[in-house]
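User: quick one
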Amino acid sequence: MAATRRRGTGTNQEAVRRHNLATLLGHVHHSGGVSRAQLTERMGLNRSTIGDLVRELDELAVVSQSVPEAGLHPRAGAGRPSLDVNPDPDSVFVLAVQLGVDSMDVARVGLGGGVLERISRPTPSDRDPEVVVDVVVEMLRQLLRSAEPGSRLVGIAAAVPGVVNDATGLVRFAPNLGWSDVSFSPLLASRIGLRVPVRLGNDAELGALAEHIRGAGRHKSHLIFLSCDVGVGGGVIVEGLPMRGASGYAGEVGHQRFDNGGARCRCGNTGCWETEIGSHAVAAAVGCPDDEIDRLPEYLQPGTRVPPELRRLGRSLGVGLGGLVNVFNPEVVILGGVLRWVFPLVRDDVLDALDAWALEAPAREAQIVLPWLGGDSVIVGAAELAFTDLLADPVGVLARAEGALSTVMGA
Amino acid sequence: MAATRRRGTGTNQEAVRRHNLATLLGHVHHSGGVSRAQLTERMGLNRSTIGDLVRELDELAVVSQSVPEAGLHPRAGAGRPSLDVNPDPDSVFVLAVQLGVDSMDVARVGLGGGVLERISRPTPSDRDPEVVVDVVVEMLRQLLRSAEPGSRLVGIAAAVPGVVNDATGLVRFAPNLGWSDVSFSPLLASRIGLRVPVRLGNDAELGALAEHIRGAGRHKSHLIFLSCDVGVGGGVIVEGLPMRGASGYAGEVGHQRFDNGGARCRCGNTGCWETEIGSHAVAAAVGCPDDEIDRLPEYLQPGTRVPPELRRLGRSLGVGLGGLVNVFNPEVVILGGVLRWVFPLVRDDVLDALDAWALEAPAREAQIVLPWLGGDSVIVGAAELAFTDLLADPVGVLARAEGALSTVMGA
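Assistant: Done. Structure below.
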């Protein structure tokens, strides 16, 4: 029926239909399930148009419809209940990669944003890009082997701790990996040999995206996600949109001078905020040897005795957060990475320092919170990036995705 | 004719016409004069619609049309030359106020953005808000007396060095004026007794706006305007729009920690960047006594011998700018206030420190420049804010503006 409707209609009407189809799929993906009545209201279209669009997505096997459980939609009123439209995670999925200094994670994420499977391995010690990519490809193939037969891969995306250029697939500078000008996406695309786009994002920016869509930043237009491990980066959402800067390099909040007499930073300078709050500083504060830094959370369990060095670090965190609050006037700041363990232990030190530092007006607005997605913010954000193309043009991307998997499954 | 067309047309068509009228007036105001052919191209409307819209604005006496001088439009081709549409600065104007710690400026600015007249006076020494407003009102009345008879005042706006809330007219916190929670706009509105809106903006934000519309930031989507006098603030444009933050307080880049062992700041903290590069630091570096700080430019004339303290200040400026470049990845950073005098003297120190500090990728994008509007950026920005309502709804605002002046002119 969709094909019949398409034939003979003008270009504009076709463009409108494709736009509506994409928008509706976005609602279903981001909400994880939504009733047809809600879609009618949110999209401002009539019931029969919504019905047609849902039917088309159903025929494409990306959504399924179900009768809602009683009581879930109390405002639906009398009459036939509105059907729920749910994303089908087993039918369409992406592969997400998170490159860390110490470990690498890959995940298979279904439509709707759920992590279906996840694998973690230590980062190869010399961090040679070719070796890293080979290991990543091996991990991704492992994920593909457990995908449902007939399910479709629609994208791959990687989160990198550094400045990247998605358009060219280039990692411009990732000091903590020791990378500069690494042509990452083309390399990964050629090694994995699948006909799906490979995209690239900064880890903090992707963390912000995920928390904005499904986490502590939902329904907030101004937020900062602080990605804090060996390196410290910021993902900033301004007016509901990622702040990318002129060429996508914005958000390097860890590389601002914090202390004239501070420590040497991996970026080459002295006294960056990163040297005060990054995971090496945390390790030093709690007496964790540098070569055991992947075990750092063990030193930061709830109830642990808090050494004065960690409280001092908490105050440096608060002072720096206060500066960011003055600069960005955010509604919420989300503390990712190792700060998920640090913040609960030194919360009062952080908030006291922040309150003393930030100007009163913006300080009153800003909540300081942990990521709702826990340790998954960045990899879920990479998955969101990988879903971008599908959500812009479901019909086109699904047409190209058919058969993409059979190539690798046969390999 | 406009009235005839209006009667009987549906609401939607009327809304479209009003939108087009406002958009066209915006083009004329921002460009300072544009041909009808260019308007046709930029707005994507046909020649006769553009002709009708221009005629309506002409009848409202806000624009005038003229035959272009030969050779100015080489691409117009053969045939009758396209008429130029020019803003009429003597017919419609706004009043702009710039409150400084040491001096206060007011200006009458005509449609098209030109400063028609400007008055400057020292800020009353105790900076009592009521006294400040009384002096400002006196200055504004002086400007009004020299306005063309029959010309229409369509708005008043003030730039303040601090965090403000335009919606409520409240100056939340201006530490260098010693103000907190001053209800500025309502006070000014009641004292001047004119039926025009009084609006309020942060000085750096308004400087950024003016440079974005008519200065060093034209056609740039990512820029920072650094307003640097006693206080240091930033106006940031992200994706072509002012970065206001959750409640309009964003941009306080001077109140980030810069040096743990630094000096006490007026905001109450220690080691803010403001203490390193603000005009008091500049005065100390060049041996200008604090009570002669309004004469600071005399100490910073081209060709002056540059003391090592000023070179050190230049390096602190460069390090801080490097941090901002890392955070915002801007296309251009515009140095306003006292930096207009400092930067030419220590340019190499600033740029060397910036290059050493900023990450290479964003550093390569960022130009560091002086404001094209010289010392007028902030007050021209205030004028742009005052023009906002006119540019959103010319017909409605002009209808209300008729007679507004007669009130005060008769007083």
